[in-house]
Design goal:
Blueprint: H1 16-23, E1 28-31, H2 33-39, E2 48-51, H3 55-65, E3 68-73, E4 78-83, E5 86-92, E6 94-99, E7 104-108, H4 112-117, E8 126-128, E9 135-137, H5 141-147, H6 156-162, H7 166-177, H8 183-191, H9 201-212, H10 217-226, H11 239-255, H12 261-268, H13 274-280, H14 285-293, H15 303-310, H16 312-321, H17 341-345, H18 353-368, H19 374-404
Parallel strand pairs: 2-5
Antiparallel strand pairs: 1-2, 1-8, 3-4, 4-5, 6-7, 8-9
C-alpha cells in the first residue's frame, strides 16, 4: 500500500503549490529532510525539490511565472526559488561523474532512481509527489526510518569514498534519529576514519557542532571515541572528555537549559587545549572566546556577580561546566552600573587613574551588596572618595616630610 506524506504546515506555505504547478505534474518531487522529518512528525525548516528539468529550463519556467530565481549552484543544478519571501531549493536530478572524497563532478539525469542512488542514507533518499503526497522510496528508507536505523545507500565504503564527510554525518544522523547502529556502516566508518584528515576543518566543525546537540550526542560521541573515529583530526578528545559531556548534559537537563554546541565542545576538549582546538577547527572569534571562557570556573563572587562581569550566556556555561546550578541567573538581566567618572570628579578626585580606581572600588562594593539602588551607590561613592582623598593627602604629606629631611 502506498505511503502518503502526512499533512504538515510547511505544505501550505504561500506560493509552494504554485511553484509545484509551474514545474509540472510528474516533473518535480519534494525530497530529503522535509519528507523525512514530516514522516517523523518533526518541524520542517528547509524545503528541497528535485526535478527532471535542466537548470536552464527551471530558470525559464520560473521567469515566465514571475517567480524570483537565484542561481545559487548552477554547476550542481541548484536554483533557489523565492516564494512568498521564503527560499526553496530546486535541484536537477544528478549522478556523480567523478568524486575525490571532498568534491563531486556531476552530470544531470532524468532518472529518479539514479538521483536517489547518489545520496548518502536511505532515509534521506525519500521523495514525495507535491500533488498526491505519495512517498517514493527506492532503497528501503521507510523501513530504516521506522526502525531508527541510519543506513548508507549501497556500499558504505563507496559512499564514504565519494564524500569523506559522510563518516561524521553517519554518526550525527544516528545521534538524531538512530536507535540501533548499523553494523556495516559503523565498520566502514572505522575502516576509513583517517579519511577525515582530507577534509577542511570548517566542514568537520560544522558536523561536530550539530552532532553535539543531537538527542543521542553523549552515547554517540562515546561510540566514536571508543572506535577512534576522531583520533586523526581531534586527538585531544578522549573518554574522560565524554564523561564531562555526560555530566554537562545531565546538568543542562536538570536546569532546563537548552544544549549549546560550543559549551558541549568546551566540556569535551581538555581546557588546556581549548584555544588550540578552536583555532584548528577555524571557529569564529566569538566561538573561540566562548569556548575558552566556558572552562574558567564559577568565580568566587557568586552567580549574579559572574553574570554581571562575564555576561549571562558565559556565566551559564561556566556554572554548568563547574557543576553548579545556573537557574537563578538564566532569565536575569544584569543592571546598569549607576555611577560615572564625572560624579567622582565632583567629589574631588583627579581625572585619570584616581577616578578609575574609585570606579572599580565602587562597582566592586555595589556588586558585593547585590546591586543596590542609585541612592546606595551614591553613599558608597562618598565613602570611597573620602578614603582615596585621605590616602592622597597622607601620601602628599609623607612626600613633603621626606623632602624637608
Amino acid at each position: 500500500m502506498a505511503v502518503v506524506l502526512p499533512d504538515a504546515p510547511w505544505r501550505h506555505r504561500a506560493g509552494l503549490v504554485q511553484l509545484a504547478d509551474v514545474l509540472g505534474t510528474g516533473e518535480a518531487r519534494f525530497v530529503g529532510g522535509a519528507v523525512r522529518d514530516t514522516l517523523l512528525g518533526l518541524d520542517v525548516a528547509d524545503i528541497d525539490i528535485a526535478t527532471r528539468h535542466t537548470p536552464e529550463t527551471v530558470l525559464a519556467l520560473l521567469k515566465t511565472a514571475g517567480i524570483r530565481a537565484v542561481p545559487t549552484g548552477l554547476a550542481h543544478g541548484t536554483i533557489t526559488a523565492i516564494v512568498a519571501g521564503d527560499p526553496v531549493e530546486v535541484t536537477t536530478l544528478r549522478r556523480d561523474v567523478t568524486t575525490d572524497g571532498r568534491h563531486a563532478q556531476v552530470a544531470f539525469t532524468d532518472d529518479w532512481r539514479e538521483d536517489a542512488g547518489r545520496r548518502d542514507f536511505t532515509m534521506n533518499a525519500l521523495y514525495s509527489d507535491p500533488a498526491t503526497g505519495e512517498v517514493v522510496d527506492y532503497f528501503g528508507g521507510l523501513a530504516d526510518l521506522a526502525a531508527g536505523r541510519v543506513r548508507f545507500i549501497g556500499s558504505p565504503l563507496q559512499r564514504i569514498a565519494e564524500d569523506h564527510l559522510r563518516i561524521l554525518r553517519f554518526f550525527r544522523f544516528h545521534a538524531r534519529f538512530g536507535d540501533t547502529i548499523d553494523a556495516e556502516g559503523l565498520a566502514a566508518c572505522v575502516a576509513r576514519a583517517n579519511d577525515l584528515m582530507a577534509l577542511s576543518r570548517e566542514r568537520i566543525a560544522a558536523e561536530l557542532l550539530k552532532l553535539l546537540v543531537a538527542r543521542g550526542a553523549v552515547s554517540v560521541v562515546r561510540l566514536m571515541v571508543d572506535h577512534a573515529i576522531l583520533k586523526a583530526v581531534l586527538p585531544e578528545i578522549d573518554a574522560v572528555g565524554v564523561d564531562r559531556v555526560a555530566r554537562l548534559a545531565e546538568q543542562e537537563e536538570r536546569a532546563g537549559i537548552v544544549p549549546n554546541p560550543i559549551r558541549r565542545l568546551a566540556a569535551l576538549v581538555p581546557s588546556a587545549h581549548a584555544d588550540t582546538v578552536g583555532a584548528r577547527l577555524k571557529l569564529s572569534n566569538a566561538q573561540r572566546k566562548r569556548l575558552i571562557a566556558a572552562t574558567a570556573g564559577p568565580g568566587d563572587e557568586g552567580p549574579f556577580a559572574l553574570a554581571y562581569r562575564s555576561g549571562v550566556e558565559s556565566a551559564i556555561d561556566r556554572l554548568l561546566l563547574a557543576g553548579d546550578d545556573p537557574v537563578v541567573i538564566a532569565t536575569w538581566s544584569p543592571p546598569r552600573f549607576p555611577m560615572t567618572g564625572g560624579a567622582l570628579v565632583e567629589r574631588g578626585l583627579g581625572r585619570g587613574p584616581e577616578v578609575a580606581t574609585a570606579l572599580r572600588a565602587v562597582e566592586t562594593a555595589w556588586i558585593a551588596e547585590g546591586f543596590p539602588d542609585a541612592q546606595r551607590v551614591e553613599a558608597i561613592a562618598d565613602v570611597v572618595a573620602t578614603e582615596i582623598r585621605e590616602r592622597s593627602r597622607n601620601a602628599s604629606a609623607a612626600s613633603a616630610s621626606s623632602g624637608r629631611a
